Amino acid sequence: MAVDKDAELEELIRTAGGEEGTEDDAGAGLDLATLLMVTRRSLPWMVFLILLGVTAAWLYLRYTPPIYQSSSTLKIDQKSQSGVLGLESAGKAVDARQSSKNLAGEVELIKSSVIYQRLRDSLDLDVNYFAEGTVLASEVYKTSPFRVEYRIKDNSFYNRKFNLNFLDANRFRLTYLLNGQEAGGEYRFGQPISTPQMELTIYRTSPATGAEELKVNYYFVINDDGAMARYFDENLVVEIVNPEANTIGISFKDNNALKAHDIVDKIDTLYLQEKLAKNSLASQQTLAFLEGQLDENSRKLQQAEVALQDFVRRNKTFDVKNDMGTIVEQTAEMQKEREELRLKINALADLTGLIGQNRVFVREGQSLEQSIPAIGALENPQIAEQISILNEQQGDLNRLLESYRPTTTAVQLKQEALEYTRRNIRGLLQGTKELLQREMAEIDRKQREMDARLQLLPEKETELARLRRPFELYEKSYLMLMDKKVEFSIAKAGTTPDFQILSPASMPQAPIFPVKLIVYAIGLAAGIFLGLALVATRYLMHNTVTNIRELERNTAAPVLGVVPSYDKEKLAVSKLIVDKNPKSAISEAIRSIRTNLEFMSTSKKTKRMISITSTISGEGKTFVAVNLGGIIALSDLRVIILDLDMRKPKVNLAFEAENTKGISTILINRHSVEECIQKTSIPTLDFISAGPTPPNPSELILHPEFDQMLAHLQEIYDVVIIDTPPVGLVTDGILIMRKVDIPIYIVRADYSKKSFLKNINKLVRGSGFNKLTTILNDARAGGMYGYGYGYGYGYGYGYGAGYGYYEETKAPTGLLNRLRRRFS
């Protein structure tokens, strides 16, 4: 019998496991209902993040000083009058070469220290005046109520902050840091302030002091040349707008719009003044130098020409170097021919040595030239043909010798033909060798003639080179000086500067940075992005069953009911509470489950057996079993609860009873069923605890005594409720579920993983548990029905939980609470 039970259990496990590969994953794909639920719960956070992004943008704009930009455009023309002088084409050539260089030079002139220094002096930019605000300090350009004149003795006092506060219309307080300590004092306007480090005199720029000026904290900074140069370099931009139109753009950025405008306007003025102040002095000096050099160079050039003409008349040649080159080329050609002849003679010697060898010259897969390279060097087809014949004859002879003796007639005839061919080849080689030797002798004779002519050329070449060097030098110098003279003459006579301001310095109306619309758009987009990221993150992390809709959608088993949360008290373990709170929401929910159990029964028998299990410990199966048994017992039915979770017994803890005897002792025949039945506070409700933990719980359940015990209890009680072990951890509960009328599977809201629902589907579709039903336990507010409770106990199969059941509380009132409940 035990063997049959083991086989039945193994078949049950195999059948359940076989469906795993075909079962769809619970919650696979996009769950729109869950996404909508997560989105609704995240709406307050999304609104908060959007407001946070907009607020961050506002704070950024509030605490970021604005930057203004003023710009202008200059057109630089070169009006040429060379056409009047008949030199229009030359003038165009000069303009084309110098156009791009001129514009780059103008850019460097505008950004030069000369313009910087004149700009600093003309606008009094060496001293910056500021008024401290609540958040930022603003420069009071041209509106400062005072003016500073200074002479700095200690360079460390440049770029230093000097604080100034008005005391009244004639007095002020000046403070600054000196060696880490605050220094200064009270002075009168116009009073010289002399220290070892500096001399200052501060004047008023307005006749009276208002009440507002007395409240403002002013300060000024005296800039040195380096600071001013860095200020201009960082904020001034000069660039070529259109090289073909000769236009240059000038722009300047500053935190003060009026200051940026004045600087660009003053740069335009100073640049024009600097260009107009320049004249053609450099061109005049260059022309005077060129005139003197031309006269001296012309005299020396004439002397060189006379000497060169005399040499040509005497030697009847003007190009000795060309004659020498011709002789050298002819000598090189003869050397090349001589080398080729030498190679051919060597090739003849090599072939002569090969002819006397009794072997095949051509290897298999190669040509005659590849096997005997000397044949290709001779370029004699007759010799190549004879050697080919000799090669074939030698091959035939070798093959014949493999079958016949050397004294046979056939072999001797082959040898005679072979010797004849060798004599022919030797004759051809000898004749070719004599011909090549005669050609080499002729080349040697011509070589000696060329060497004799070549020995006479160096003396003439040396003389000609000595005469030609000064001539060429003076000629090039003369032409270069003439070109320079013409070029500078055209630049002086044909070019006049002409400047035009195409667009004057603009007055900035709005800052270029930061742009409010862009900053607010970025803040809004960042808030929306963070809100969507929050929704996505919460959705991806949402891996637990939340409400009854998810349970119904992802399982094939019907939902028997929902057990709401209960938070009246926190219990260390599950307890019977329906007898103490018969009118509570949790009691009504379990009554609804009791009613639904009536519809699940397909037979008319009044006695039923119910099993309650879950995937893992902590999902509340013991709590549901105890209180469901209590509700059924309150309807005047005799109910008994069996604790079959012998590894982690908990039913006895729910009734605060001992666990010294129970199911385990009954199955080993140590106690009878009647001895282990324990009473509860409800007269019609009894229970049997699990008993001492045995070493083999699974084997005890398979024992025949287990079926006898169930049959005996069904005779005594109307309803038998079995608290089974979690089926996700051990397999005991699966076999127990086979024996009952109604198996119930507990799923705890916000605790059970969605992947646990696969176990339910496998039991229904793969193992044939068609009557399996589910109960959603611990359904909190927002899960479906709006209750709130929790329970906890810290034990069970590696899963620890600490939660307790609580009595429901009154729904919160007020607008804020209603909104919170609405979005939750």
From TrEMBL:
| Superkingdom in the source lineage | Bacteria
Q: Does the keyword Nucleotide-binding apply?
A: yes
State the Pfam families in the record.
AAA_31, GNVR, Wzz
Subcellular compartments: Cell inner membrane
| Keyword annotations from UniProtKB, A to Z | ATP-binding, Cell inner membrane, Cell membrane, Kinase, Membrane, Nucleotide-binding, Transferase, Transmembrane, Transmembrane helix, Tyrosine-protein kinase
Domain Polysaccharide chain length determinant N-terminal residue range list: 30-119
Segments forming domain Tyrosine-protein kinase G-rich: 462-538
Keyword Transferase present in the record's keywords: the answer is yes
Q: What's the catalysed reaction?
A: L-tyrosyl-[protein] + ATP = O-phospho-L-tyrosyl-[protein] + ADP + H(+)
Q: How does it sit in the membrane?
A: Multi-pass membrane protein
| CDD domains from the UniProt entry | BY-kinase
Q: Which GO terms describe its cellular component?
A: plasma membrane
Q: Indicate the segments forming the AAA domain, all copies.
A: 608-744
Give the EC number(s) under which this enzyme is classified.
2.7.10.2
Which InterPro entries would you find in this protein's record?
Answer: AAA_dom (IPR025669), Bact_polysacc_biosynth/exp (IPR050445), GNVR (IPR032807), LPS_length_determ_N (IPR003856), P-loop_NTPase (IPR027417), Wzc-like_C (IPR005702)
Query: Which GO molecular function annotations are given, in alphabetical order?
Result: ATP binding; identical protein binding; non-membrane spanning protein tyrosine kinase activity
As for family, the record states: Belongs to the CpsD/CapB family.
NCBIfam families for this protein:
eps_fam
What is the protein name stated in its UniProt record? non-specific protein-tyrosine kinase
Q: Which organism is it from?
A: Hymenobacter busanensis
